[in-house]
Amino acid sequence: MFRLFIFLMSYGLMILSIGNLILYLNYRTLGYSWSVVLKFIMHTTEFYMAIGACIVLCSVVLDFGFDKTANLKDKA
C-alpha cells in the first residue's frame, strides 16, 4: 500500500511539473531564443521536481534495491 501511495504521489508531481515546463515554452512566442528558454527551464524548481519524481517513479516501478531472496534467507 505504501508503494502505491509513493507511485501516485511521484506520478502526480511529475505530471504537474512537466505541465508547467511545457507552459514555459510559450516564452518562445514572446521572441526569446531557444537557448534562453532552455536555460530558464533548467533553473526552475519544476525541472528538478520532474527529475526527482521520475527517479522515484522508476525506482518504485522497476523495484530497484529490493532483494527478495535476502528476506527469505533471514527468516530461515
Automatic annotation (TrEMBL):
Residue ranges crossing the lipid bilayer per the database entry: 5-27, 47-66
Record's keyword terms, sorted: Membrane, Transmembrane, Transmembrane helix
UniProt KW Transmembrane keyword: yes
Protein name: Uncharacterized protein
Organism: Lysinibacillus mangiferihumi
